[in-house]
Amino acid sequence: MTLTLISKAFAQDQPIPKKYARAGENLFPPLTWSGAPEETRSFALMVEDPDAPHGTFRHCGIANIPAQWCALAESVDTAPEQAPRFYKNDFGNARYDGPQPPAGDRPHHYIFRLAALDVPKLSTPDAAGISAMWAEAKKHALAEATVTGTYQTH
């Protein structure tokens, strides 16, 4: 079975609704996945915009998602303390911050990357940021799945 990732909020390569954008309600879009390898002990997620003017911009990083989970609810960042760990995004916030491309730019692509990991927790410090967390996650990845949405500021 192959790891798959989908969102009920948007289809693959389709626009992300404004309520999930930073200028909207800035809500985390709901995600569900299936097909994780049996050896999975946790998951990590990263949301990035490779079309940003100054290089790839990371909007969200979450690690230590329990292996038994198969979804992240809308606005998962409002979950209880035992929730997975958020890492500082490129806005400087340890939470989800939605799409915010410059006005007039062509639509940007927002890639939601989920990795099934062979460890129950990553030890990367929160302050290390998403890039460091994802680099550590890649060392333990058993499988990876993506779903991509687009967003344009008019």
UniProtKB/TrEMBL annotation:
SUPFAM superfamilies from the UniProt entry: PEBP-like
Entry-linked Gene3D superfamilies: PEBP-like (3.90.280.10)
Pfam annotation, one family: PBP
NCBIfam families: YbhB/YbcL family Raf kinase inhibitor-like protein
Protein name: Phospholipid-binding protein, PBP family
